[in-house]
Amino acid sequence: MSNNIRVLLVDDHPVVRAGLRAMLADFEGVQVVAEAADGGAALAELAKLHSLGEPVDVVLMDLQMGSGMDGVTATGKIKAGEAGTPPPPVLILTTYDNDADILAAVEAGASGYMLKDAPPEQIREAVASAAAGQTALAPEVAARLMGRIRNPVHALSAREVQLVELLATGMSNRAMAKQLFISEATVKTHLVHIYGKLGVDNRTAAIAAATQRRIIRSQ
Amino acid sequence: MSNNIRVLLVDDHPVVRAGLRAMLADFEGVQVVAEAADGGAALAELAKLHSLGEPVDVVLMDLQMGSGMDGVTATGKIKAGEAGTPPPPVLILTTYDNDADILAAVEAGASGYMLKDAPPEQIREAVASAAAGQTALAPEVAARLMGRIRNPVHALSAREVQLVELLATGMSNRAMAKQLFISEATVKTHLVHIYGKLGVDNRTAAIAAATQRRIIRSQ
DNA sequence: CCGCGGGTCAACCTTTTGGTTGATTGGGCC
DNA sequence: GGCCCAATCAACCAAAAGGTTGACCCGCGG
Predict the structure, then answer these.
(1) Chain B contacts of A116, Cβ < 8 Å?
(2) How many Å lie between the alpha carbon of B90 and the closest alpha carbon of chain A?
(3) Which residues, numbered 13 to 42 in chain B, qualify as contacts with chain A under a Cβ-Cβ cut-off of 8 Å?
(4) Facing residue for A22 by CB, picked from B12, B22, B172
(5) Which residues of chain A register pLDDT less than 70?
(6) Exposure string (b/e) for A151-168, b if CB count within 10 Å is 16 or more?
(7) Fewer beta carbons within 10 angstroms: which end of chain B, N or C?
(8) H/E element, B191
(9) Among A53, A87, A67, CA closest to A11
């Protein structure tokens, strides 16, 4: 266990980068060696630091990047070795905890998933865990995943999630039927099931519920 | 004109508060005198500092607060003098630039509206402007407002925005009518107008369009 | 002063959705 | 093999939403 963890910050917000820098500076054994405003810059920084013989121990990465490469893509590329370095652990630090993002990040090879409103101590522990090769999930994130596994009664099937996604784009039953190559009757059946599982009784409320429960992501 | 601007930070994210604190510490003549994690705490801080004879010159306020009083409500209360102080200028500093939030903040009495991805220099200037009693809008925000003014053909009226917001929560026409103390007929009239302006023909598509055009925020 | 547009409401009709019942198929599991 | 469940479809009826026309009031601006 190194007692000087070298960290690369990746976040498009200068304010957040400054905050993390200040926060991590208070911790013994953690050192922010570089920053990047998007995924592309992060890959470049990793390559540069590697060529200088100053490897990075942990990447602290935001998911939502205003412009440029997003965090999931960047994580995937880092883990694929596209930065030309032995892939360092990538710790996701983001604002929202929707299912889609969490699963995508884990699939891309992230070592952990933390929320920005976490207390500093939790972030420090997560960085240390990641550096040690362990995984680190925020309690809220862990709870969400456990809830999915423990209580599948109200979990939407893959097909139903697909329906909700189309629903949120404003499509009519007929349009969804055509898009999915099924009949309107089937669409209606799916919708009834969805309403039941979400505890609502119309399509707009279903969208609101699915968004709130982070089954789909908006924006 | 004081050359030592006393600032109160209001944001629920410790990381962001740390970032702003660090960022503002680099500027001459700006001093962060207190912090609050939500609107209620902000009011309490203002009252406390006032009673200590240490008034606040500018409030830097986030809009989205995980729990507790949100930024718009807090701004309104501060401007109404509920903190027991001569109301200081309130500068909104938030992540998103949707119409609904901007209008609500301005209505509540905010002196400016900045985005968190703004460069530090812009934030410093905005704080100085607010302290001097002037208004400060981020370029993106200004552009959005100008767009509304220049091309009001497809701009929703305040009432219509209100309808869309309720719509996005999944309410039925009847429920919206009750909530707004108007008849269902009026609700339907508004919806027809909204569909026309957004170029859609049903409520779910209206929600999608309004979200995409940042007329409302999702979350 | 008069028009224009926003907000309000009513009546009427058409289309879409919601809710129910029932049925078939195919995959996974004991 | 038998059972359950997701996915598919049909028919039917009730309720909600969509669309149109016409009307009234009010404030703002030419």
Answers:
(1) 13, 15-16
(2) 19
(3) 13-23
(4) B22
(5) 1-3, 99-100, 141-154, 218-219
(6) eeeeebeeebbebbbbbb
(7) N
(8) helix B184-198
(9) A67
Strand pairing category for B58-61 and B5-10: parallel
Q: Is the dihedral of CA A174, A175, A178, A180 positive or negative?
A: negative
Is A188 within 7 A of strand D by CB distance?
A: yes
Q: What is the pLDDT of residues A19-76, one digit of tens each?
A: 999 989 888 889 999 999 999 999 999 999 999 988 899 999 999 887 889 898 899 9
d(CA B85, CA B63): 21
Q: What pLDDT, on the 0 to 100 scale, is given for residue A1?
A: 46
Q: Where are the beta strands (DSSP E) in chain A?
A: 5-10, 30-36, 58-61, 90-94, 112-115, 136-137
Structure token pair of residue A21: 């820098």
Q: Residue B28: its pLDDT value, please?
A: 83
Angle between the N-to-C axes of helices B99-108 and B158-168, in degrees from 0 to 180, rounded to the nearest 10: 120
For B187, the enclosing helix (H) or strand (E) is helix B184-198
Task: Say if CB B30 and CB B57 are below 8 A apart.
Answer: no
Residues 147-186 of A with CB under 8 A from B: 167-172
A11: left (phi over 0), alpha (psi -120 to 50) or beta: beta
